[in-house]
Amino acid sequence: MNIMDFNVKKLAADAGTFLSRAVQFTEEKLGQAEKTELDAHLENLLSKAECTKLWTEKIMKQTEVLLQPNPNARIEEFVYEKLDRKAPSRMNNPELLGQYMIDAGNEFGPGTAYGNALIKCGETQKRIGTADRELIQTSAINFLTPLRNFIEGDYKTITKERKLLQNKRLDLDAAKTRLKKAKVAEARAAQLNTSQPEENNIMSEQEVRITQSEFDRQAEITRLLLEGISSTHAHHLRCLNDFVEAQMTYYAQCYQYMLDLQKQLGSFPSTFLSNNNQSSSTPVQSVSAPSVLASASASLPSVSNSIVTSGISELKSSSGSRKARVLYDYDAANSSELSLLADEVITVYSIPGMDSDWLMGERGNQKGKVPITYLELLN
Fold first, then answer.
1. How many angstroms separate the CA atoms of 353 and 367, rounded?
2. SS3 for 21-76, per residue?
3. What is the spatial distance between Cα 281 and Cα 283, in angstroms, rounded to a whole number?
4. How far is CA 42 from the centre of its chain?
5. What is the pLDDT of residues 224-246, one digit of tens each?
6. Average pLDDT of the chain, as a whole number
7. How many CB atoms lie within 10 A of CB 261?
8. What 8-state DSSP symbol labels residue 325?
9. Position 160 pLDDT exceeds 90
10. For a designed S-S bond to 126, which of 9, 56, 98, 222 qualifies (C-beta 3.0 to 4.6 A apart)?
11. Are 330 and 371 in contact (CB under 8 A)?
12. What is residue 364's three-state secondary structure?
């Protein structure tokens, strides 16, 4: 027998097997053939594997969205990954914002309060961007990669063996159907007193034994693979702990960066108040202007002391007025306050019962409360 004859016979046998499975599957769907059911334990394992695959895919995809919210960037990274090429390095959102702030601060002047504050904010944003990169990298290695390996590796193997088990089950049931038909034909021949070759029954019984053995062997292989799902869960649990630890490190870094930035900005009261247009009914989460001023004053003892030594105490205890130079721009939060421009000179005085952090200010026919930390009393 040459190779061509062997290939032709093999193709014919494969075609016959495929046709037999198709007929058996169709008759089962139509209720015209019996189906061998898997044992309950194997069915439970299959269900557990499907559930694991479904939720692993969802968690993996949503984690990717969390780490990289930009869908175009995710697609680009996916393409480069499939091409086995490294994606070009680009600034992430915090880094880009930080660079804009630094550039703006340099443009406005590092020596100005606003410019200096922008530069400090920009540097902090860039640190957050670096921490964000580290979170993505750590999470990809310790969390996303193991989940993806399960979907693209272990579960693909399970799917392959499960499909093979399905084919073996169809072969077994098709053989059982042929044996059943052979026995029916034999019984009918006995009733009609006609001869029926016993070879058909013997061959059918032998086929059933062989297909049953192959089915049992494949069921055992599939079962052993599926029982490994418990180990997969244990591994994914360790990966989940690594992911949580990476997030904890990231958020702790961000908190510390912002805490340090807040302390640095304490030397720039106008940074806090220049855009504070909220009324006194602001919720507790938003810091009110007097409390911010008090905090700023506490962080600037030299400024506070210079004001006190310039006569604030005497001014508050008397009914007189003084001239004061404005140190920083200030936008009034409401109609009871007076907006200020840096370096202008206004008249200030105190009224009974007034908050210790404020004075009354006058500029021509305009009048309103002004924060003392923005003022330098003149002799």
1. 17
2. HHHHHHHHHCCCCCCCCCCHHHHHHHHHHHHHHHHHHHHHHHHHHHHCCCHHHHHH
3. 6
4. 34
5. 999 999 999 999 999 999 999 99
6. 82
7. 18
8. E
9. yes
10. 98
11. yes
12. coil
